[in-house]
Specification:
alpha/beta; Rossmann fold; 7-stranded parallel β-sheet; binds adenosine monophosphate
Amino acid sequence: MTFQDFNFNEHLLEGVLSMGYTTPTPIQAMAIPAILNGDDLIACAQTGTGKTASYLLPVLNYICNTHKHHTTALVLAPTRELAQQIDQQVEGLAYFTGVSSQAVFGGGDGMAYEQQRRGIQNNVNIIIATPGRLIAHLTSGVLKFNDITHLVLDEADRMLDMGFQDDIMRIIGYLPKKRQTLLFSATMPGRIRTLAKAILTDPQQINIAISQPAAGIDQQIYRLHDGQKTPLLKMLLKDGGYLSSIIFASRKEIVKSLYKELKSAHINVAAFHSDLQQNEREEILLRFKNKQLPVIIGTDALSRGIDVEGIDLVVNYDVPGDPEDYVHRIGRTARAASKGTAITFVNNRDLKRLKSIEELIEKPIALKELPEVLQSIEAPPREDRPHGSASGQRRDGRRNPKRFGNNKPSRPAKQ
Ligand code: AMP
């Protein structure tokens, strides 16, 4: 199958080909005909599968062919980063069509709000918005949604996780009842099905290998204790030959301290977390995208949406609590059929989490041997050593006298 088979408007097809897309991905092959047919759709697909273009292309095709000069499509997305990336894909795909779009999200300064307001007033064809900020524009009266024909919910599960359910229902209250609604979600818990029942009409259903990481990702784990994590990370970044890497950590405090350690080891790195201003976050993402910045460290906020080609390494500095987050994190590499490496650091406390991940992805992850120079590093106080690992690490069970000298019971330190 090729993109020519969809009979797209010629200017749109020109955009698709100029983006370098030749063959539709599986989600595109299934979703595009259904959407072109006018059906509502519920699709289970993760980022990295080409899902964004799978809904953008038929929506753009509709706008091209109907020559509408007002806002006809609304895309809701959980984060500003994802909203901006969807907007960038619209810009690329619609480059030769004259279709316009505006990303609407919170967190910017007054100027950003004003710019979004102007875009909305200029009747852009497509609005891509986070729910919270969209409500602000809706209540200010500047938005008119009478002519919306297409509503897309992207990463619906994430939006519900972030507490946007009420906002979504409120926004839908402003839309015409007669419309085409497309719901995309990486997972399909019961509450997504309930939401789908409430807002979709007789939808077609598409399921793309739920929660399976892309086949091109070489997944590896290291069993280690916390004292070995940063030295191993430095080795990987300095000697691994990777050109573009993302490091994920569970909390921003870890992100910040890791950032300092890597900086002092002369690694060109930036930290990405919620304390940064919007413009700082954008600047980091831009430098990373342009390959001026080889390493970025962030929390899970970074794992959704960041759409950068050519990331060859993802490191999980700790194991994410939710196995789905693991799939999202490692999905930042090997995007659209390329190859990449995903390395996860697993200490004793994370073994249960690792088990849940391996159950979800239905296979064990390859265990790598810790480099010999790191094996003799002592575990920090209150840290359990790994139980019998294949890497032959020490397991002498000695207690740290400073911590345990008074024989008080101890619990493993929380990460
Ligand atoms: P997504 O799953 O929408 O986040 O897309 C993942 C990446 O795949 C993005 O960088 C897209 O530009 C790219 N992509 C989408 N569709 C195709 C395709 N048919 N061929 C090649 N790359 C694609």
